[in-house]
Amino acid sequence: MNRDQIEGGIRNIRGRGRSALGAVTGRARPQVEGAYEQVAGVAQSAYGRVQNRAERLERDGRDFAEDAARRGRSLRDDVSHRGRALRDETVERGRYYGREVTERGRAVYERAEDNKGATLAIVAAAAFGFGWLISRRR
Question: Which domain holds residue 78?
Answer without folding.
Answer: 3-137
